[in-house]
Specification:
Elements lengths: L1 H6 L28 H12 L5 H11 L3 H5 L6 E2 L4 E4 L10 E4 L2 H9 L22 H12 L13 H8 L6
Helix pairs in contact: 2-3, 2-6, 3-5, 3-7
Length: about 170
């Protein structure tokens, strides 16, 4: 925009001149994960969040899947008998359908959730028709509950998936 304004003679010089572009996030390895103590703090902070975000955070911790895939999870994709969730190809990052085993704690949490709208639609919804959004507001609420509870370390709720993936969490029987 500033270059455009200079080219049109609206301003003499761009205030953005010399500012380096931000480092691209894509492809950068994440270096920080939550340790077990921090993960427990996030879990307890999620208790203070109302549906749908409190249970959503807990499922992210339990399942180690991508936020968007969990947030868009539908009742029709969960097989309570087999204890699995099938993420359809259309919603997975790699465009391949895959099965996610559900720990007993995840199944229990899912069973406790309200069914808003149809019995096949979105699990995390306030309308019964569309999946939740507004993650930044929920993340700010969660972060606010975590402040001062991590002894000076940065506790970042968005890293729950990375923790689960790296630790290869063992599901209790």
């Amino acid at each position: 925009m500033c270059s455009w304004a200079v080219s049109r003679g609206i301003i003499d010089a761009s205030p953005c001149q010399g500012i380096a572009p931000p480092t691209p996030e894509k492809g950068r390895a994440r270096e920080r994960v939550l340790d077990a103590k921090e993960l427990a703090l996030v879990w307890r902070a999620a208790d203070a969040l109302d549906y749908p975000f409190g249970p959503l955070v807990k499922l992210l911790i339990l399942m180690g899947q991508r936020r968007s895939e969990v947030a868009e999870m539908e009742w029709s994709e969960v097989d309570f008998e087999k204890g699995e969730w099938i993420i359809p190809a259309a919603r997975s990052k790699n465009r391949l359908a895959h099965s996610v085993p559900l720990a007993p704690a995840a199944l229990e949490l899912l069973r406790s959730l309200p069914r808003i709208g149809s019995n096949t639609g979105p699990i995390f919804t306030t309308t019964g028709e569309t999946a939740v959004s507004g993650f930044s507001v929920a993340k700010n609420g969660l972060t606010g509950r975590l402040q001062g509870s991590t002894a000076g370390r940065s506790s970042r709720p968005g890293r729950c998936t990375i923790f689960a993936a790296r630790r290869r969490l063992a599901w209790p029987a």
